[in-house]
Amino acid sequence: MLGLLRQITQEVTDAQSLPAALDIIVRRVRRAMRTEVCSIYLVDNLTSEYVLMATRGLHSTAAGSVSLKEDEGLVGLVGRRAEPVNLENAQAHPSYCYLEGTGEERFRSFLGVPIIHHRQILGVLVVQHEEQRRFDEGEEAFLITLSAQLAGVIAHAEATGAINSISADQEKMAADVRYKGVPGSSGVAIGRGVVVFPPADLNVIPDRTTDTPETEISDFYQALEAVRTDIRLASDRISEHVSEDEKGLFDVYLKILDDDSIAGEIVRKINDGQWAQGALRQVIQAHVKQFNAMDDSYLRERATDLRDLGCRILSHLQEKGPKIKERFSEPSIIIGEELTASMLGEIPIHNIKGLVSVKGSGNSHVAILARAMGIPTVMGVLDLPYAQLDKVELILDGYLGQVFTYPSDNLKENFQQVVNEERQLEKQYETLKDLPCETKDGHRLNLYVNTGLSADIGRSLDRGAEGIGLYRTEVPFMVRDRFPTEAEQVQIYRLQLEGFAPAPVTVRTLDIGGDKALPYFPIEEANPFLGWRGIRVTLDHLEIFMAQIRAMIKASADLHNLKIMLPMISNAAEVEEALALIRRAFAEVKEEGYNVKMPRVGVMIEVPAAVYQAKELASLVDFLSVGSNDLTQYLLAVDRNNPRVASLYSSHHPAVLRALYSIVDQVRDEGVGLSVCGEMAGDPMSAILLMAMGYDVLSMSATSLPKVKAVIRNITMAQAQDMLSEVMELPHAEAVTQTMTRLMREANVERLIRPSKTTIE
Ligand code: PEP
Ligand code: MG
């Protein structure tokens, strides 16, 4: 049963279009369940009707032309109940509705199961028999399982443009198709897409046309020859250690490479205008699909060999291709299956208009970086057919987290107005630069910035930052191919410390693990966010920790504005251990003759354990800084990167607000500095609440800083405290957000943070 389910799901996943996918489902299910009829009805989003989309057993002419209203017939009943309906005599049921032209009058028994994706009914899967008998439990369970597995695939096929509205005409559908994701960084971008992809990952290669097929073909043959040579060499190297039989594996590889049919197919596709990488992907994927569909497990394994070979050829082709920088000759919207912070590092910044990542969410590190750099970004656009979007015109709406493909002139005009208003807001922000962040009734708040790149310094100073509240040192570690040396680190940190002196610069010790991987220090774990992360890694690797601390202290020579911050602290022992090491490093550096002062040391509060121990932790250090990104993730048990649960991730959740309030309560008399450096601090709505709770420093991206300042300067502390009292009573995050939106509108400050011309919902 499992094998059968896997095979059907695989075939459906590989289908080229929605009609093809649906046809496979009805054909395969009818055969597997030995029923006389199998049909699929899908909901038309415009009319809310169930349209018969594919059938085996009913008249095929009915497919596409027969539909039921949402409250009509047994199909409507399945949809309304969102439960299976299993009847031995369908026609005797009061909801039965005869569908003209289908030929279904012969069939007595009926089993319909809903197709549900993300709580939404996509349609109904039906099997029928002439014989009057109830489908048994096993059959019902099979259909339910299959429907649950296929729901995601059908939703994806629908969304990737195969249909938008089932009945809409094709021409209209092409323009303004909207793909929903989550906001990553606010702002609007209008421009053409450039698809980026990690080297040697065949699945993410986009389609692209070529005007020089001869060169592509010659590159392809060279890559093929290079792989042949690699395999022969590997075979020779290993020959002493394995039997002739085992060495046969390499012969299989060589045979596949010599097989003219595969190379021939690729060359034909290139001659038809596809670039070599795209042709390689198409052909390998088609063959892999054939192997995967085979019942024989030995033959299925050949799919793995083929995929492996495809990747090898690809990596040789990529070496020849234009380097990433050369591909960005004009400002573009960068699209990737999973954009990473290090990919960003490779693209000239002035050529990035916007970013779209199929995976990840608003709290992924690439989104945080994008906010720091003020680049409009949409994350988690799971259904985006990104491989087809190279050079395609797009609109990216970072406010609502959506992407439009092939925008019409009308839509472009609307969004261009938003862009124009954004420019005006930016101009207003410039006037705020040297003004203090102070409420109308004189309460002073300090606004710091979060940095990671050296380019952040100028931007932050231009925007009036009063210090650095979080310098993420992992960023310079991520864009290298080995650990930076102590001397290199001194130079990197010095830029930040000097750039801001005499204002404080909070440098965080290396926070890798979780979703932040160093290419040269892979950490493979089943549960990385609960694993070896942040301080846990560095305390286990004293050489890394000590080099970093020594570099920070040396970099602060003569400046004395360094603060050191420890990430992912979950117990007091970690702080004690780190403090001892920092004191030791300080003594060493001083002994070497540097003019340094012992830096102030602080702890990040980002796991629930630290919230409950805030008082004890505060007694050990000089300041606490709440990392609300991780704190929200760990309090709510919601992965900050997972777009599927992005709607559950909210720093306005009452549990998060109470935790934040409790930290202030616990440390009020401890005499420590108290700040928030998670993304929440840069959200003007949350900033008001945090100020009212008693936080005295908020650290955020340079892009958010003027917005927060504009809002704080236009309200009073008394108003902020009233807002806080009102929202602390509310039961859920949504209510907090809505109430704060209303209160900010009433206080006449909403207009200061976003263009009045709203983007298209
Ligand atoms: C946080 O978790 O809120 C934080 C500031 O750290 P990072 O986002 O780098 O994990
Ligand atoms: Mg964190």
From TrEMBL:
Principal EC category: transferase
Keyword check for Coiled coil: yes
Keywords: Coiled coil, Cytoplasm, Kinase, Magnesium, Metal-binding, Phosphotransferase system, Sugar transport, Transferase, Transport
Cofactor(s) essential for the protein: Mg(2+)
Coiled-coil region(s): 408-435
Subcellular location, principal: cytoplasm
UniProt-annotated location(s): Cytoplasm
Reactions accelerated catalytically: L-histidyl-[protein] + phosphoenolpyruvate = N(pros)-phospho-L-histidyl-[protein] + pyruvate
Recorded GO MF terms: phosphoenolpyruvate-protein phosphotransferase activity
Protein name as it appears in the record: phosphoenolpyruvate--protein phosphotransferase
InterPro entries: GAF, GAF-like_dom_sf, PEP-util_enz_mobile_dom, PEP-utilizing_PTS_enzyme, PEP_util_C, PEP_util_CS, Phosphohistidine_dom_sf, PTS_EI-like
SUPFAM superfamilies in alphabetical order: Enzyme I of the PEP:sugar phosphotransferase system HPr-binding (sub)domain, GAF domain-like, Phosphoenolpyruvate/pyruvate domain, Phosphohistidine domain
E.C. numbers: 2.7.3.9
Homology family: Belongs to the PEP-utilizing enzyme family.
SMART domains assigned: GAF
Keyword flag Coiled coil: yes
Annotated source species: Marinomonas sargassi
Residue ranges of every copy of the GAF domain listed in the record: 17-164
Domain of life per record: Bacteria
